[in-house]
Design goal:
5-stranded mixed β-sheet, 3-stranded antiparallel β-sheet, 8 helices, binds zinc ion
Length: 215
């Protein structure tokens, strides 16, 4: 039997300061672990119950995730390293694509499961985020791909203040159109910037525009 996920015990600290041992792998091969694909796609990451206060503690530890079948080679860094990563100061060795925070891993796993092109989904998210920001310029909008529903791509829009339902469905045909035009689109801004470097997300645009405004 091949070892599909290397499991090692790690020490993490709960909010109550108790130190807990958690069973968390250093790397995951999605091709060899279909159960892990379903698990991550639903937003389930390695966790443990704190024996002192009973809280569920999740390990946001650096993780390598690969899937040769779809050319996937990722390093997931903790969300708290986001700003250092934007400044190019958190880059791990190698050439793996970087994701920031486990929410981005869960989202990417759903794209792998649904066999979607991550860049095309990011283009759709960019359009949705732009619309949401037009409606609510002061809101901190985040858009996540949530999965295929009845043949449509479902997205969750977080951060809306108006209390509107933050769920948007786009027909598969819209996605197919974006895929067909992808080579031309990614040669132009803002997509050229979004897909340059090792972190390829619309989220870095806000940071880049704030730093260029500052001079
Ligand atoms: Zn605790």
């Amino acid at each position: 039997m091949p070892v599909v996920s290397e499991v090692t015990m790690k020490k993490i600290t709960c909010r109550c300061d108790a130190v807990i041992e958690i069973d968390a792998p250093d790397s995951i091969d999605l091709d060899a672990d279909a159960a892990m694909v379903s698990r991550l796609a639903t937003g389930d990451s390695p966790s443990a119950v704190c024996p002192r206060c009973g809280a569920i503690v999740r390990a946001e530890l650096p993780l390598r995730v690969t899937a040769k079948s779809c050319g996937l080679d990722l390093v997931i860094l903790p969300e708290m390293e986001r700003l250092s990563a934007y400044r190019g100061k958190a880059d791990p060795a190698g050439t793996s694509e970087i994701l920031l925070g486990y929410q981005e891993l869960f989202e990417r796993t759903r794209m792998v499961r649904d066999e979607l092109d991550a860049r095309a989904v990011e283009l759709l998210k960019y359009a949705l985020q732009g619309k949401a920001e037009e409606a609510e310029p002061d809101a901190e909008i985040t858009v996540f791909y949530n999965g295929l529903k009845d043949g449509s791509l479902e997205f969750h829009i977080l951060g809306l203040k108006s209390g509107q339902a933050g769920v948007v469905k786009l027909p598969r045909a819209s996605y197919d159109k974006v895929v067909a035009n992808l080579p031309g689109s990614i040669a132009r801004e803002p997509y050229k910037t979004i897909f340059s470097g090792r972190y390829r997300s619309i989220k870095k645009l806000g940071f880049l525009s704030s730093t260029s405004d500052a001079g």
